[in-house]
Amino acid sequence: MQGMICKESSFQLLNSCGLLRDHFPCTSCTESNGFEQPCYVELDAPEDNLPGQCLISSNPRHSTCSASHEVTRRLCPCTASGR
């Protein structure tokens, strides 16, 4: 998104099963721990990656904008640059 930047301090606002379900087809929500969470695990992910689940971070303050995982999708806590 042009003119937008990821704001790491706002990941806590996205760390909600209800919010993730508004954007992804979560089959369930599970608390987990990872720098790329909160996130949605793709349906074609290997079984040990919990396909179809939304993962809620047990510590969203550890979430980073640069983190990623090849079988997940995330929402970006973006804000207009300069704000």
Characterise the protein shown here.
- It is a single chain.
- With 83 residues, this protein is of the alpha+beta class.
- The chain has one domain (4-76).
- The chain has helices spanning 11-14, 17-23; strands at 4-6, 28-32, 39-41, 53-57, 72-73, 78-80.
- The strands form two sheets. It has a four-stranded mixed β-sheet, with helices on one face. Strands 1-6 form a two-stranded antiparallel sheet.
- The longest helix has 7 residues, at 17-23.
- The radius of gyration is 12 Å and the shape is globular.
- The chain starts with a strand and ends with a strand.
- The model has no long low-confidence stretch (mean pLDDT 94).
Structural class: alpha+beta
Mean pLDDT: 94
Query: How is the largest sheet built, in terms of strand order?
Result: 2-4-3-5
Distance between the termini: 15 Å
How much strand content do the residues show?
25-35%
The low-confidence runs, each spanning 5 or more residues with pLDDT under 50, are: none
The global form is globular
Please tell me the total number of domains. 1
Helix proportion: 10-25%
Order of SSEs: EHHEEEEE
Number of helices: 2
What is the β-strand count?
6
Largest sheet: 4 strands, mixed
Rg computed from alpha carbons, rounded to a whole number of angstroms: 12 Å
Key traits:
83 residues; alpha+beta; two-stranded antiparallel sheet
